[in-house]
Amino acid sequence: MAWIRRSGLTVLATAAGIMLGVSSASAATGTVNTSGVALTVRSGAGTGYTAVGSVADGAGVTISCQTRGTTVTGTYGTSSIWDKITSPAGYVADSYIYTGSDGTVAPPCVQTVTDDYPYKSDSSSEADPWLFYKRECVSFAAWRVRQRLGVDFTNSYRGVHWGNANNWDDAALSAGVRVDHTAKVGAVAQWNTGSYGHVAYVARVNSDGTILVEEYNYLSAHNYDTRTISASSVGNYIHF
């Protein structure tokens, strides 16, 4: 049981579980498509970083993780996603890599588990810059999505009102964001139980069918905690 406050009210809620699938947080693969020229590999996620090599057009790459950086327009549109590849080691613009997805396909490059939420000492009656109440589960999840995934997420992301946690699955579907039952590092775990629901950030996916989540306002009112839980206990996974 947990104290969950969403819109200025505090309630006591429980999380119910259903059986879901699990995928490991692993590398992905892609194919370079530059229409002939070699793709520059850089030391960081941006065009301002030093070139450390190149990958030929048509070559396959292994993507160990993804992050956000300089926005680049390439073969597959305009994107700020950068792929960290294994050979040559460095970063390439995802807009030149065929991965089968317009979003992320590999874990985020930053995976430190720590309470780096910038409003941990602020009043929970104040709104954060992305228009959720500070120190609520939705505010922390929004912070993680923005910080770790580089998504410009707000309470009106893609013209949709996200609101309380129990609306996030419907909001995601309306906004064209994938919702499924597969755990992945960087996904938002979402529950519809209780008066306002709950969301948490998936920080680890373990081989034993459990996941490690980071969250606010669950074990302790308006405070940070981590839990290792069964992946099948989560209602939905939202993949930004």
Give the N-terminus to C-terminus distance in angstroms: 28 Å
Spatial strand sequence of the major β-sheet: 11-17-13-14-15-16
Please outline the major beta sheet.
6 strands, antiparallel
Q: Helix coverage percent of residues?
A: under 10%
Structure annotation, total helices: 2
Structural class, by secondary structure, is mainly beta
Question: TL;DR of this structure?
Answer:
The protein has 240 residues and is mostly beta strands. The chain has helices spanning 137-149, 168-174, and strands spanning 2-5, 10-13, 21-22, 28-32, 39-42, 51-55, 60-74, 77-86, 89-93, 97-98, 178-180, 182-183, 188-191, 198-205, 210-216, 224-230, 236-239. Strand 1 and strand 2 (10-13) form a beta hairpin.
Question: How would you describe this structure to a colleague?
Answer:
By secondary structure, this protein is mainly β. Helices cover 8% and strands 38% of the residues. The strands form five sheets. It has a six-stranded antiparallel sheet with strand order 11-17-13-14-15-16, covered by helices on one side. The protein has a five-stranded antiparallel sheet with strand order 9-8-7-4-10, with no helix packed on it. Strands 1-2 form a two-stranded antiparallel sheet. The protein is elongated, with a radius of gyration of 19 Å.
